[in-house]
Amino acid sequence: MKLITCNANRLLATEIADHLDCALTDADIKTFSDNEIFVRINENVRGEDVFVIQSTSRPANDNLMELLITIDALRRASTSRITAVIPYYGYARQDRKTDGRTPISAKLVANLISTSGADRVLTMDLHAGQIQGFFDIPTDNMVALPVMVDDITRRNDVSKPMVVSPDVGGVVRARSFAKRIGADLAIVDKRRPEAGVSEVMNIIGDVSGRKCILVDDICDSGGTLCNAAIALKEQGATAVSAYITHGVLSNHAIKRIEKSVMDELVICNTIQPSEEELASKKLRILSVAPLLGEAIRRIANNESVSKLFD
Ligand code: R5P
Question: Which of 60, 104, 133, 303 could be a cystine partner for 298, CB 3.0 to 4.6 Å?
Fold first, then answer.
């Protein structure tokens, strides 16, 4: 087995490599002055089972091209199998036509990854589970839920928690989270009048006197969480924290979160956090490296991946 990383999340890749006790394969992944990307694998990979680690996070297009070009280089170097390990799958929110004459970019990206030469995909908390079907190659969609539940259980500082889905689309995810920690479930009725803007219409469930835990796949501008936190506190919630898999945190969202009434934001390291994020007192980061590492080990050994979630 060989592990190789592109540039989007070297910290996570290093942690995965440490977990597997397997050195990262030496490769040069450079950008020329005209922004073209060049990749050279500096070790023999002929006949190897190779795992390429790359989140297609910001800058999404550059990171996607790095992944595609690295897979192409590996395919031409006669590897036996290539698994694209994509902890955060960018473009996932464009998973359907929302209007006339719009693309389904999540499908296009899946096509690009397959066409470049990937034999399988390992990813985490896809925005919509159906995106697995956009790939005609085996795709394992891991969930970060065990890492989050373990954190809540270890800290044991939440009594009578109320898990809250910040929108109707996230109810299935939030319900399974609530079930795992034995909590009740509330739902925020969110409206998006335009892309990047969210409004809370109603809270479904009685959150008065409760410590609320918002659960979602993505925090991008932070608007969804910050607005939900205001509404929950107005309805009598005593504390509001959030557990989110992918901290997209665009446009310095962390500043918005720091100023918000939300007490804590917990994200996973599927996207490499910036210095600004690391410095934030309201942000805590959980590592999914052991979970992804174990999944990689199981794929390499042809063992069950779903067993990880039993
Ligand atoms: C939407 O369906 C997602 O699950 C997230 O709620 C959304 O992407 C968060 O975006 P923002 O932080 O910009 O409100």
Answer: 303
CA distances from 123 to 77, 304, 305 (A): 24, 15, 12
> What is the pLDDT at residue 180?
93
The pTM (predicted TM-score) of the whole model is: 0.96
For the chain, the structural domain boundaries read: 2-143+290-309, 145-287
Mutate to test the pocket of ligand 1, among 167, 220, 256, 267 (most ligand atoms within 8 A of CB): 220
Q: Which atom of ligand 1 is nearest to the CA of 167?
A: 6
The answer, yes or no, to whether any atom of ligand 1 lies below 6 A from the CB of 216, is: yes
CA distance 11 to 80: 26
CA of 2 to the centre of ligand 1 (A): 35
Q: Is 277 in the pocket of ligand 1 (CB under 6 A)?
A: no
Catalogue the active-site residues: 190
In this prediction, residue 158 carries a pLDDT of: 61
The SS3 assignment for 6 reads: coil
* CB distance 219 to ligand 1 below 6 Å: yes
170 in contact with ligand 1, CB cutoff 6 A: yes
Strand-by-strand arrangement of the 211-219 sheet: 197-204, 184-194, 161-165, 211-219, 239-247, 264-268, 283-286
Classify 145-287 by CATH class: alpha beta
Q: In what order do the strands lie in the sheet with 81-86?
A: 2-5, 49-53, 81-86, 120-124, 139-142
pLDDT band at 80 (very low <50, low <70, confident <90, very high): very high
